[in-house]
Amino acid sequence: MKNLNLFLEGDYLRFIEKFKVIKGMTDDKINEINQDIQGKFTHIYDLNQSLFLRHIIVLSSLISKIRDISFSDTVNEIINRVKNYSNSSSNEDILFRLEELFMNNDEDVSMLYGISCLDYLAESFNFRKVNRICRIQKSKYINRVVNRIIKSNNHD
Questions:
Q1: Per-residue exposure over 4-26, b if at least 16 CB sit within 10 Å of its own CB, e if not
Q2: Sequence spans of domains, the chain
């Protein structure tokens, strides 16, 4: 209830600070989220009238940052696995191929993006069974993406 009051009173920084329990959520990340929220609020004239709009802005900024943090770990894992199979691939090449897949709404990358976030949250809140299942699925989708990247490098 206390956290809800922080939100309703417009104390968004203290509201999002409660999410530090999430792995990787540092003071810098909290401040980035707060800056993003405040930047979006500057473009809305009658913000006090729309609790719904404030809710959307705060939660979308928070969720986006959590997804970015969780997927960056997955991207690093993809880079490491591709390099284990193909020493000739640079980080830039791998990231370029991954971004191509992401921009083309590749099903495996989309699933991996969602599973990475779920795995990250499950680990942060100690949901062991969910975390275990997510890790298995995440590894499966990482392998699929790695195979796609390796195949696309072989065609060049």
A1: eebbeeeebeebbbebeebeebe
A2: 2-154
